[in-house]
Write a structure and sequence with these properties.
Elements lengths: L1 H19 L15 H14 L13 E5 L12 E3 L5 E2 L5 E9 L3 E9 L4 H14 L2 E2 L8 E4 L12 E8 L7 E10 L2 E10 L3 H24 L2
Antiparallel strand pairs: 1-4, 2-3, 4-5, 5-10, 6-7, 7-8, 8-9, 9-10
């Protein structure tokens, strides 16, 4: 009887000691792990390398400015990548954005989004679907609506993960303004580029913006392919 009691006491003591043991500590973080600020800087560098050269356009649209202005800077901003039909945002992670602007008879612009954890082609497909399913939308509350024309006549450059282009009016910005813009995806880089033109003749504004977008596509694709 005493022997059974002794065995039971030992077993209970072992169980109690096991339950009371503290949880094991997590493994140490490797010194090679990339911190979030380091990742921002890496993505900013990738975005900078996808810029179209300043000299590509002009004299109708000479280079005006870069944002951020300093090559070593970066903009860790909102999740938005498109405003069409309610907008498209990144679905996970964060993005670092660089912007370049040319201004003349037409306004030419480029935004390069470097994504931390999402494929750029996924966003291109969302933008395609949005622009094809909504004919008009208000960009800002209380402002005139924009009319959307999907599937702009721009030849998709070969060798990329995704491409889409559309045009829209922009009476909320200026009377007679028309915008055409395109989205080009390669891995974690989404290059957004477009042209704005203004004319009393709506068709003339559309043609000017579309012609400039068509001219932009080869240099944009060349810059992105080199990253």
């Amino acid at each position: 009887m005493f022997r059974r009691f002794l065995i039971l006491t030992v077993l209970l003591a072992g169980c109690t000691a096991q339950e009371a043991a503290p949880p094991s500590s997590p493994p140490p973080v490797s010194s090679s792990a990339v911190s979030v600020p380091d990742q921002w800087n890496q993505l900013a560098g990738r975005a900078l390398s996808a810029y179209v050269a300043k000299e590509e356009f002009g004299p109708d649209a000479p280079w005006k400015e870069d944002q951020p202005a300093a090559p070593g800077g970066y903009e860790h901003g909102t999740p938005d990548v498109a405003g069409v039909c309610g907008g498209v945002k990144i679905g996970s992670g964060f993005k670092v954005t660089r912007s370049r602007l040319w201004r003349g008879d037409t306004v030419v612009w480029q935004n390069v989004h470097a994504l931390s954890s999402q494929k750029a082609a996924e966003l291109v497909e969302q933008i395609r679907e949005k622009s094809r399913t909504c004919s008009a939308y208000p960009r800002k509350e209380g402002k005139p609506t924009r009319a959307v024309t999907p599937d702009a006549a721009v030849t998709p450059p070969a060798g990329f993960d995704g491409f889409y282009a559309f045009c829209e009016t922009a009476p909320d910005v200026a009377q007679g303004q028309d915008n055409c813009q395109a989205y080009l995806a390669r891995g974690d880089l989404l290059v957004v580029y477009g042209s704005n033109a203004v004319s009393e003749d709506p068709n003339a504004a559309r043609l000017a913006a579309l012609r400039q977008l068509q001219q932009m596509t080869p240099p944009v694709a060349k810059a992105l392919a080199a990253v």
